[in-house]
Amino acid sequence: MKILSSFNIFIVLLLVIPVTVSLLTSGLGFGYIEKEDDSRETCEVIDIAMEFGDAHVFLENLQKKCAARGRINKTSAPIKTRKGRAVILAVGGVVAGATALTIVVFDHLRNEERFNSIKKQEEIHKNITQLINNKSHLTQDLMMEMEGQINNNTYEHVVNTIFGTGDIEVVTSFFKVNLSEILHNMGFDDRMGLDAAQKLSYKFVCGHTSRHYQLQICGTENPTRRFGEVKLVAPPGNFGNKGTMYAYYKVPKFVVFTDRGPVSAISCQPFGNYYNCVESKGKCGYATYQSCEVKRVHTPNSVYVTELGDATVVASAVDHYSVYENGSDISFTDHKFPASGQLLIRAPHTTKIRIGDSTIQGRHDFMELKEVHMSEQIPQLDHAKLEEWMNDDDAIEKGFTDLEKERMHANVEFEWGLDSILHWFKSRVAEFISALKICAAGVIVIGIIYCLCCCYRCSKKATVLPN
Q1: Could you tell me which of 215, 214, 216, 222 has the C-alpha nearest to residue 186?
Q2: What tens digit of pLDDT does each residue of 193-207 get?
Q3: Where does the sequence pass through the membrane (predicted)?
Q4: What CA–CA distance (Å, rounded) separates 197 from 201?
């Protein structure tokens, strides 16, 4: 009675507590995943009013970089707008290193002695360029402070430096735009920092005077966007047909572990130190991998190799493998293959791992040989389905010879059933027909020989008869 109660409790626990899926994965980094069809473009529009005079040389050069057309109507959705002058935004987004450099340079230049000591335009040019490249929000203030000390060529160079690389961080920093706030408003996780700006674009549009401009910063919003750790997934599978066929589930290659659980991705593109992933469609996924299509490959040497990020995963039905170290092709050590049938390999550049007829070349600075568990129980094919699979050139990406087909059928485990009986009769009929063909060919040959002999005798008798 106690045993029965314990069993019932166990069943209840299985029904109440969800089973955790544990496929073999390899981490890539932090990123986000979203449904591609749900993305929509959105823009933040910033009005800019420069404090330079209308006929200032700097503004003349700035006019060369702005687009004459393309101003966005602030009332049209889904455009977001930011009113007022960009120059009144806070300076809090400046990175620590750039801020320190800015303060030092600015304080020195404000110091009368230091300011008066700057006689060479090259030094002014260098200081302003350094501030721009360090994405300082104080560059404009410095330029206003140095009014009259900067020549026309330097102003032209400043404008070219701001827009020359197309770096949105450089542009927004010069115009004192809080890029972190814009990224947050567009739905990007703050943990990504300004790396997420690589997913944005900008357009600089002329205004109604040389002092007025419009900066349009555009990106995408997506209500399905989720953030988390991005990982590669190894497809789970197993050998069949006595090791000559490997079957595995075609699980999407990527998975993102979000706060709402794992979500499979059909692709992940890196940007900076992060990843942008597209969510896979359909029922096939990390948590529902047994709903995925089954792929089968011919493995005549009982070895299947797949790449998992910076590692190599080998599934094999062989019982041992050899390790060749220090670039040697002769000296090796022999090792027993793991009982699970799967081995994860990371090896130094001078090391090779030989498993059956397959050789894995190392590509790391360290050695890691670890038993992993990614085996499944995908049933093997019966004779009818095996024949269909071998005749599908698109599925197997090769053609089987008659001898290979015969060997594949011979490796199917015998089970009493209609499929095995039909295959037995088909093979026996084929053998019987082959025997009949041989016999028929023999009879024909004998008949031809007999006819030739008869003709020879007749011709010989004819030559013996008198005229």
Answers
A1: 222
A2: 999 999 999 999 998
A3: 7-33, 86-106, 429-450
A4: 8
Quickly state the pLDDT bin for 16 (edges 50, 70, 90).
very low
pLDDT tens-digit readout, 229-268: 999 998 888 888 888 889 899 999 999 999 999 999 999 9
Least confidently predicted of 10-24, 111-125, 241-255, 417-431: 10-24
Confidence of residue 281 (pLDDT cuts 50, 70, 90): very high
Facing residues of 29 across strands? 230
Quote the CA–CA distance of 227 and 192 in Å, as a whole number. 10
Assign 3-class secondary structure to the chain: CHHHHHHHHHHHHHHHCCCCCCCCEEEEEEEEEECHHHCEEEEEEEEEECCCCCCCHHHHHHHCCCECCCCCCCCCCCCEEEEEEHHHCCCCCCCHHHHHHHHHHHHHHHCHHHHHHCCCHHHHHHHHHHHHHCCCCCHHHHHHHCCCCCCHHHHHHHHHHHHHCCCHHHHHHHCCCCHHHHHHHCCCCHHHHHHHHHHCEEEEEECCCCCEEEEEEEEEECCCCEEEEEEEECCCEEEEHHHCEEEEECCCCEEEEECCEEEEEEEEEEECCEEEEEECCCCCCCCCHHHCCEEEEECCCCEEEEEECCEEEEEECCCEEEEECCCCCCCCEEEECCCCCEEEEECECCCEEEECCEEEECCECCCEEEECCCECCCCCCCHHHHHHHHCCHHHHCCCCCHHHHHHHHHCCCCCCCHHHHHHHHHHHHHHHHHHHHHHHHHHHHHHHHHHHHHHHHHHHHHHHCCC
Kindly calculate the radius of gyration of the chain based on its CA atoms and give it in whole angstroms.
Answer: 38
pLDDT value of position 180: 93
Q: Model-level pTM?
A: 0.69
Strand partners of residue 238: 247
pLDDT at 19: 35
